[in-house]
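Standup, Tuesday
Yesterday: got the pipeline producing structure tokens again.
Today: sanity-check two examples.
Blockers: none.

Example 1:
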Amino acid sequence: MTPSDREATGLLTRPDDLVQLLGPTGERHASAEYDPWVADVDDDALVDLHRDMVVVRRLDSEATALQRQGELGLWPPLAGQEAAQIGSATALRADDFAFTSYREHAVAWLRGVRPDELLSVWRGSAASGWNPFEKNMAVPQIIIGAQALHATGWAMGAKWEGTDAAAVAYFGDGATSEGDVNEALVFAASFAAPVVFFCQNNGWAISEPVGLQSHQPLARRADGFGMPGIRVDGNDVLAVLAVTRWALDRARRGEGPAFIEAVTYRMGPHTTADDPKRYRTDDDLAAWRERDPITRLRAHLAARGLDADALDADAKAAADRAAAELRAGLVSIPDPEPMSAFDHVYAEPNSHLDRQRDHYARYLAMFDDAEAAAADAAGTGAAASDPRGGAR
């Protein structure tokens, strides 16, 4: 790997830059500052974290395969980022609200989103897969960084209502260069909104390395907005859980927002329409495979005396069940009625939408007319060619 490759993907990061409780081989690192935030995480809780990461990786691979088989239009893989998502989402309370981009499938899993609800958007069967207020999670945001504004607005409202619930905005490293994210940081800091900005720095904004858009760690950008920024090893699920709990607790106590940079790596393509081999090296990928978040936690559990084979069997059984549910749910998703595209676009009817609905209805009617004309022509032709019809 060349120095430029390492700089581009964050491999030059010094160990003391990151909060890390589990090393790459599963060794436990003590931290006087962050150990108290995970003091309640016993072996059973660690096993749950391991199982959840295995399950979401399997769901991700199944969805990728389904896209290749023509069952989904597109899929944005999360492989490699399981610890960042599972660790942070585990820290959330039921009344907190998550605002995500299009890659946080693991967050959705922990918020109770069914696999078929997760896939319906990518199949083109629905504009949104679930009711956000039932899951306390907004549907995935495709517009880069827009969810940061949504999270800030929700958090400001929660503060005005006097609750201690908090919001978390998930976005990638590329989104930090978007105006929406920076505007959200300004508003959140100005109003001390109870929101955590959770940046998954996975090394690449599609094909552009993070080092191209930022010559400093992304967490340092928080300094200019007057909020704390913290960098965490995003492949260490225990450390991610600890720092997210810290940030949420701070928000609940009225101390305002915080910015977390979870340094991780996107193992697969940006989406299934992307070819990462065009812009990154095999050595780069191999180096990050050694930091795999699932392997790391499994090694830690084995070092604590747990039966690694039993862990694997339990996690695989759970993953098999989830994968079967995903495939069964996918084929049961009904095709939407064409005119349903106009449902739930606005809270109230308006003439602009009515005009579009009318135009689209007349456009669809053209095909009905064409089919009717074709049927009439086929009937006439059949009569003309049928000697019993006497049309000749």
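Example 2:
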Amino acid sequence: MESTATPYQETKHDSLSPPHPVRRRRGLALPAFAQTAGQPIRIGSTLALTGPLSATALTHKLVGEIYVEQLNKRGGLLGRQVQWIVKDDQSKPDLARTLYEQLVTSDKVDLLMGPYATGAILSAMGVAQRYNKVLVHHTFGIPSMAKYDMQFPAWSLGHRPQETVSNMLFDMLAASRKPPKTIAIVTSKFPSIHYMSLGGREVAKKRGLQEVLFLEWDFGNQNFGPIAARVKDVKPDMVWIGDIGLEGNMLLDAMKKIDYVPPIHFHLYPAPGPLTKSPEGANALALTIFEEHPPFTNQGTAAEFVALFNERAKAANLPDTSVEVQAAASFTAWQILEAGVRGANSLDDRKIADYLKKTRIETIQGRLRFDGPGNYGDDLMKIKQVQNGAWKVVWPESFAAPGAKFQVR
């Protein structure tokens, strides 16, 4: 499956294009780059439009469509309109690798944008490295595996999130009126999820929590009944759920069937809309970089983007019509790519990469830098909670939604 999200319009010749060999016409020497006058800048990517990751990837598709549309209304890039070519990787990293090869070699796109989810991003990163292409990506969860020097993360979790993110979570819990003493850790083996869960497991032990259960499941699992039963048996104060997409919903549904509600449940990367709409999702905790409330909506174009996304997501019948961590990460990735092209004044991948490495980029989630290990900068993650059917940031308190505080059942 392939779609071109935004049609291009003819524009004036881009005088910033690199020189090409000349051609002859009526005795005059004309540069071949004149042939590109009015042609779009083509950006290629894949998304998991089908398969187990599609519920979240559809959010990324809508964000990309909005961003490219608005970018073209502002005149595009380097005097040319922008066309986004999207292929469906079906939630399969191996297929993503093949499709990125096609984008570079057959479709001959000018630039790349990363796919959704760590496995697919790692596949795309390998292709980008082979062809010396910049790859901006938005949801890569294992920074230590980001070895390529022209990849740039919009997922601002720092270069050691297994420690920094976990400690932030347990800092919040320790400061609560009823800190947990026991923990059950149940997790998918999906690479980034597993990585973060193992980090959380070590941090929990160091902070004195008693581990009463550790269970793993294969990505794509549909039967969460046995896991729910094991959790209920050990009666933990807190359940760490290493989930992605709808896995968390399926586990909570299985718990409901056996009349069990976890006192505290933390989710890594759930499908945000379905969790807020489920009664069992009440008081769920998760990670975020942005939610559609102050102080986040007070900066830059955030409020404008939120209003537009709300409208388009509702019209598209998406399961979540609000801007949260996934939509914000996707929007940030496009901001980074645009800033790189404008700053370099070029489509040359090396020039774009050099500019990004030495420049702080203003984004919907704050100023990002790419001068740390693996091109990662600061850990900007926050903790949010489902309260009254909506996600509200509760920690750090300086970023909390107006009137929102961490709630313990």
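Quick observation on example 2: DSSP finds eleven helices and 17 strands in the chain. Residues 4-35 have pLDDT under 50 and may be disordered.
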